[in-house]
Structures are given as C-alpha cells and as structure tokens.
Design goal:
The protein is mainly β. It has one domain. Helix content is 5%, strand content 59%. The protein has 1 helix and 7 strands. The protein has a 7-stranded antiparallel sheet, covered by helices on one side. The protein is elongated and about 60 Å long. The chain starts with 5 loop residues before the first strand and ends with a strand.
Length: 157
C-alpha cells in the first residue's frame, strides 16, 4: 500500500533554565519526505505525498511561576515533486505546480499551562505565505494571509 514511500527526519528540543523566572525553550525539526513510485506505478499514498522538505523552528520563554510561555515559530514546506501525478502536473508545468504547493509560516503565540502539562490553553497567530496562480500563465505570485488558532488540551492518565 505504501509502495516506495520514504521519510527521514531529525528533531530536537531543549528547555534550559535562564534567570530566576523560568527557562528558554527551543524546538526544531527537519524532515525529508518522498511518496516514491512513478507516474506508471503509483500507490494510493504516492499521489498524496510528493517529495518535499519541511523545516520547523519554535523558540519561547516559559515563566515557571505563572505557567505562561510566549513563543515565536517558523515553518517552511518546499515541494519538489518529480512524479507528475503527485502535484497534478505535466512535464511542462512541474516546477510551477511545485511552487504552488510550497509555503512558509511565521507565528507568535502564548501557551498557558494549568496543573503542569496536564491541561493547557494555546493561542497562536500566524502569517501564512504561499504561491498562487497569477494572471500570467505559468507565473506565480505571493499570497499572504493571517490565521489565528485556539487550542485547549487536557490529558488524563
């Protein structure tokens, strides 16, 4: 079912005490994904996962006594499919279709941890930049929009 799907990723996280108020947090990830296959031999997953590189970086400061953590984040997704079916492309439009599926995100947020990490409320505002078709065939233009999310988590063990 997965055919020749391949993925490799490396990530890391650190939480280092800084000053008497709390700690600096840093989280990062770099991943390479490839649905594999070919245009003649494509699995169900091959059409969904083009070759791409994804990078993520998040840095914040956790104020221990009040359980608040402001942070900033950056993400990028660079699609570089070589299987035409993966991005609905022809050989003439492959680079164009890869550009249309690539994006970057910049964000700023705040986390509030209640009762340790058992419950939290997370608010994030991101600027999402992606390519979109322009009025000129085969040419992309940059489109940017804001996106806000609110997440409430509760863990029970």
């Amino acid at each position: 079912m997965q055919g020749s799907y391949r993925a490799i990723s490396v990530d890391g996280m650190t939480d280092v005490p800084v000053g008497s108020l709390g700690s600096m947090t840093l989280s990062s990830s770099l991943g390479f994904f490839n649905g594999g296959g070919s245009d003649e031999d494509s699995t169900a997953f091959t059409g969904l996962v083009p070759r791409q590189t994804i990078f993520f970086l998040e840095a914040g400061y956790f104020f221990r006594d009040i359980g608040v953590q402001p942070y900033v984040k950056y993400e990028s997704q660079s699609v570089n499919a070589n299987v035409l079916k993966q991005v609905a492309a022809t050989s003439a439009t492959l680079d164009y279709q890869n550009l249309l599926r690539s994006s970057t995100r910049w964000g700023v947020g705040v986390n509030y941890y209640m009762n340790g990490h058992s419950a939290s409320i997370k608010l994030l505002y991101e600027i999402v930049s992606r390519n979109r078709a322009s009025g000129v065939p085969g040419v992309t233009e940059r489109a940017t929009n804001g996106e806000a999310s609110l997440q409430i988590q509760y863990f029970t063990f």
